[in-house]
Write a structure and sequence with these properties.
Strand order of the largest sheet: 1-2
Radius of gyration: 19 Å
Number of domains: 1
Order of helices and strands: HEEHHEHHHHE
């Protein structure tokens, strides 16, 4: 009895995942924004003022602290997606995850996906939203380059 296992069909994105991806992305950006504010308070320039027009608050990072924040940001996406069943904290909350179209979700695929965030992130991820909305498999550029899609968990 030499039975071959049935081939598993390639995963397809769920119809209503796009909204969940957007909310998951917002959650992830908020979490990274908190990290940015903490690093700014520790190492950067922060300023608050209140005048007749109202109050304002600003933070900024430059130099080594900025590089540290960028590494933390890329690390957040890479580590969680590569070693947490394809889920960042935002994806986990929204019940979605990244999977490879063919084969397992290898760390090399997650590296490609993560590095492509530089392009996908233009104009506050507007590029990613447009590409997801217009692509057949609801993929952003990083998904297309890495051979991944986002599905319900």
């Amino acid at each position: 009895m030499n039975e071959q296992p049935a081939s598993t069909p390639a995963p397809t994105p769920a119809q209503n995942v796009t909204g969940s991806r957007i909310v998951a992305g917002i959650i992830d950006v908020i979490l990274l924004g908190i990290v940015f504010i903490i690093l700014s308070a520790l190492f950067g320039d922060s300023e608050s003022s209140s005048g007749d027009d109202g109050s304002s608050f600003s933070v900024s990072l430059s130099g080594l602290p900025l590089i540290l924040f960028i590494l933390i940001s890329f690390g957040y996406y890479f580590v969680l997606e590569a070693y947490n069943q394809g889920q960042t904290l935002g994806k986990k909350v929204m019940g979605i995850r990244v999977v490879a179209i063919e084969g397992p979700l290898a760390p090399s695929k997650v590296v490609v996906r993560t590095l492509c965030r530089v392009v996908d992130g233009f104009l506050f991820y507007l590029v990613a939203v447009i590409v997801i909305a217009t692509s057949q498999r609801k993929q952003r550029i990083g998904d297309m380059a890495a051979g991944t899609i986002v599905v319900k968990a």
